[in-house]
Protein: Phosphoribose diphosphate--decaprenyl-phosphate phosphoribosyltransferase
Organism: candidate division TA06 bacterium DG_26
Amino acid sequence: MVDLIRSMRPAQWTKNLIVFAGIIFSGNLFRSDLLFRSAITFAIFCLLSGAMYIMNDILDRNQDTHHPLKSKRPISLGIVSTTRAKLAIPVLTIVPLILAWILEPRVAIAAAAYAGMMSAYSLWLKRIPILDVLIISFGLFLRALSGAFAVSVEMSVWLFLCTILLALFLALCKRKHELLTLEDAAGRHRRVLEHYTDKLLDQMIAIATGSTIIAYAIYTISPETVGKFHTKNLVFTFPIVLFGLFRYLYLVYRERAGGAPEQLLLNDRQLIASIVLWAIAVGTIIYV
């Protein structure tokens, strides 16, 4: 059971924390009923994303042998049999979808769309350049949308754009890291890497970085945001976001990191400090 849970990649469940964006940026964080609904949504996507990770590991078990880290995953090592893993997928998909429907039908629809999209990604779409990283970014968007549906709030369009663009930035940096570390073996590990070049990824990362920065800046000063929180002070969180993005780029380009964003976000002290400082600043501005 422990190895099966490891195959669900708990370390990557940090991505599901985006479901709390809805309750946080609506000013309702301290409403226990809505916080409970957000927590249930988080659990739903932990199970659902776990099922998608297992599916992906089953399909990629041969290619993962060429990767220094992925080759150590339970399915790749044979510790969890493919038969056992395949039996877990429908359980980990159906149960959270039923729970989502009970919680809020719109959450169930978004969760089903996520499961369908990520299944298509694992089976086929991950082999199509550009579309592969866009699918990943829209996966994070559907998580954020589900979080908003769960607490029945409307999130700013600019905040949704920030979510999509940030996820795209992270996905592109991951492709860059794979090219840098795997070199000639990159195509054997992930077929889509044969279509990417260093120069192309550098240009796409630059566009994603700039777009994320601009989208967040506009969100902080938009009339909708100022009117909702009755303050213009969110703009003072902009330098923290700028530092966090630039720090991440430094780690990708200078330290050859970025293959596992969740590890960077949990292990790099400067990134942790910027995230904590940003959270404190946002919390203070919105709630104090």
About this structure: The domain at 1-155 is CATH 1.10.357.140 (Tetracycline Repressor; domain 2). The radius of gyration is 19 Å.
